[in-house]
Design brief:
The protein has 333 residues and is of the alpha/beta class. The protein has two domains: 3-141 and 303-328, Rossmann fold (3-Layer(aba) Sandwich), CATH 3.40.50; 150-294, Rossmann fold (3-Layer(aba) Sandwich), CATH 3.40.50.10750. It has 13 helices and eleven strands. The chain has helices at 3-12, 26-38, 49-59, 77-87, 95-101, 105-115, 129-140, 181-199, 219-234, 246-250, 252-258, 276-288, 315-328; strands at 17-20, 42-46, 67-69, 120-123, 150-156, 167-171, 204-208, 239-244, 270-272, 293-300, 306-308. The strands form two sheets. The protein has a six-stranded mixed β-sheet, sandwiched between helices. Helix 8 packs across helix 9. The longest helix is centred in the middle third of the chain and has 19 residues, at 181-199.
Amino acid sequence: MDVIRTIREKARSRQRRVVLAEPLDERVLRAAHQVTRDRTAQCLLLGDTAAIRKRAMELGLSLDGMDIVDPATDQHRAAYVDRLAEVRRARGLTRAEAETQMQSPLTYAVMMVDGGQADAEVAGATCATADVLRPALQIIKTEKGITKVSGSFIMVSPNKSLGTDGVAVFADCAVNPWLEPKELAEVAICSARTLKRLLGMEPRVAMLSFSTKGSAEHEQVDRVRKATELVRQMAPDLAVDGELQADAALIGSVGAKKAPGSAVAGRANVLVFPSLDAGNIGYKLVQRYGGCEAIGPILQGLAKPVNDLSRGATVADIAGTITVAAVLSIRES
């Protein structure tokens, strides 16, 4: 499966609006130009109109097909200030303080998504993940029934016998150092949604551990078992099993031996790691040693999509993230 092409085609069918909070960064502007040329999203460039046009001219890039949203002249600004003050009133935020906070492009971009002016936001090329997440958590908040935002990667293996045609989602590989059983269950549910929303695949979720079905006893194994049971309670229609070792989750013959009768063992396409240590190390190992393509990180669990960039992201990385954000904003599935 050509994962990127599948995501692009889905994005082209809907032309969602993605606000970019850092359009003066050369990589972001070039990525917006590429996305516009490919017709995978409508890019909204947030910032001073004259500065953005000057930057585009310096880079020899056309802004045709993109919209500039200048907070200084945007007709929605006053309503956004009122909304921010209302949302944060319980925290003691005054309208004057809300006005000051709205000077941050990251806050303004989130307000655009919250208010429906944009369908998704992409940021992080020049700032830390925490700075991108903070206003999103304060304003957009998490999906119903979800308390934690997590980070997943779509892993594409040259070995097409793994996952679904070589494709699997790994999580949490980017955000939470430690998760309690309910939070781990939430990551499983969000990761399944990510696979379904982006690629239309039916998820089969493996809750990973160093034990398979009682082969070892430890409090950390108990945590994964409890999380598995909570997934079954919270999402009864979702195919999930655990605790499973990675080989039992991915390899049919091993799954049949270690977890006979499991609908997931040997066929998993969503791998939920027991900790950020395991998830981050795991995806990097299969990327470097296994020759897998890693698409992400994809922030999941927010009520509306806000996607973070690595500060080392390339133009291609940013264009891909914009396209992913556009598809994630389509919430029929």
